[in-house]
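Input record (Table S2, row 237):
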Amino acid sequence: MLLDIDNAYVQYGTSVMAVQGASLTVREGELVSLIGQNGAGKSTLLKAVMGLVPLHSGTIRFDGSPTGGRSFSTVRNRISYVPEERGIFTKLTVGENLRLGGVARKDRKAVAEDVERELERFPVLRKYWGRGAGLLSGGEQQQLAIARALLLRPRLLLLDEPTLGLAPIIVDLIFDALVRLREEGVTILLVEQNAVRALEVSDRSYVMQAPGRVLGCGTAAELGELPAVVDYLGFVP
Ligand code: ATP
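Output record (adenosine-5'-triphosphate complex):
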């Protein structure tokens, strides 16, 4: 098991528990999605994996090691995270942003090759290579954010709502890229509100319901057998 979240609870300050006993696993090479409505706790669970919010209780293990301790490094373990707000440096150029993704690596030649591969994957980044990243459209920035995350050669790629607010043609482009990445063997945990599309491309999905609980998990066909999930989603996967 590459990622193993067991009975995780996360609380913001003294307010409600955003995640309440969620368990989730991702095996190497899988594309797993986490779907569910606003406020279900999906983003919080990704942040907990990254150590951006502390666990109240439960455990998160990456490749067998607990992620909570000070000695755990997401960079050293090559966990890449694209937050919902993308984290692009708007004052830097597209090229500078992209290169930053590989800054923790020592294999400079391989980094240069990977940059080239990402420019082939997302040609718009080559077109706007020298342009300030703040001038890109939302969809272009999302492609930049994903490409930059891939430059770490991630063992696990965490994506938070990569298609939110984007034009349908760009949504297609992003989902196509995810399918190709999965074929390349990249392990992905995808948070997505577009349940239909997420179920289509994923090996397995977890359905989360507020407050912070996993309602069901499995392949689309397996989820379709769970009445509570079908009720919640409003369709049979
Ligand atoms: P969305 O798609 O809207 O991001 P989500 O399923 O990812 O939904 P979270 O963002 O994880 O849900 O939010 C889960 C709960 O935690 C919500 O009730 C939300 O209001 C609360 N929450 C999220 N971030 C914070 C924060 N920084 N401080 C306090 N409460 C928060």
